[in-house]
């Protein structure tokens, strides 16, 4: 149950594919697209076009994982490696824990999925990881460390000597409520970052899409439906693009505009769910083969999770594949043939939920958006049955032209450039819509007068 609160803003997102600085002394600003599994960073610097920041392995995205082992803190791939042998020491899938109480269903779900973490309730009733006798981490503190790392990547790759980057735009899932948004801002503050704006991820994606199609935007409205299946959740947004006339200091100008018309989401439909079901299938195969109590070993469970993830990806392009793990438990190896059909049967109840997300977005748009083109963002949409569900829900094959992985980070960095001082950019009017779940406790009534405040939150 949800209602759509449309925030009609006159804010201009200022964009230009080749963006040049107006003042030579403008500082670099960044965007951080922090997802459940991956973190991507965009940057704009004076005189340099916007681009994705490379991490220390020269990769364009970094696993959103932080680990602690023998007094050493690691991030990204290194932290993932630590997690293979010491799952409890490696913290991941943190996004969904932000701004929750300990007894929130998503926190309890997290505990059940990753039983090797010791998570307790703090005095304030929020979840806390017990790392060791002396160390505890809140989800906000761990996310802050990821954000600080993103800032550091940007400073290393682009910073002037000793120059700090402090301004950023951070993406959040559109369904994040006020407590979750506040938790993200708290984490950013801990990381030494000033948040120019938290931007809904689908809005960032739609901005990026519009920027590169500015020439296609004219007086005739056209529509795109963005479908984003991530690791933990799925969202769809129906967006309108058209030119509008705006009055600026008495002069009427024609400006391209994007408007979010409707949003649908499913907070628990995502890639992790499929991986976990596949892992359960592997465990049953192991148990059927007379293997030992693999569930009691966090390390073995972690190996199974990684193999299930690999298997899931391979099965999106192959009809069968052998899952194989060396010395899974007690030096015994594991091998099991798994077919795509088996995976699809395991997830059969999930595919109809894909269509439901789309239907909700279309319904929220109240009949507008006929002929919308379907645009995929997010890794989950690569799976063939998901694509099939999408194609039948939309009556068309998805367009494959978007760089699904980087669209949100790029859209957000355009936004950052427009909000920061020192950048000259061309306008795109943005009208956002926010979906607020009904279970949110509001601290204040949101009405027309609050629109700009909400937008800048
Ligand atoms: C807008 O562009 C589309 C496609 O390029 C074209 O079919 C349409 O006639 C244009 N509309 C106006 C009002 O110029």
TrEMBL record:
The keyword Signal applies. Coiled coil: none annotated. It comes from the Eukaryota. Keywords: ATP-binding, Chaperone, Nucleotide-binding, Signal. Residues 1-26 form the signal peptide. Belongs to the heat shock protein 70 family. PANTHER family: HSC70CB, ISOFORM G-RELATED, HYPOXIA UP-REGULATED PROTEIN 1. This is Hypoxia up-regulated protein 1. The lineage of its organism: Eukaryota, Metazoa, Ecdysozoa, Arthropoda, Hexapoda.
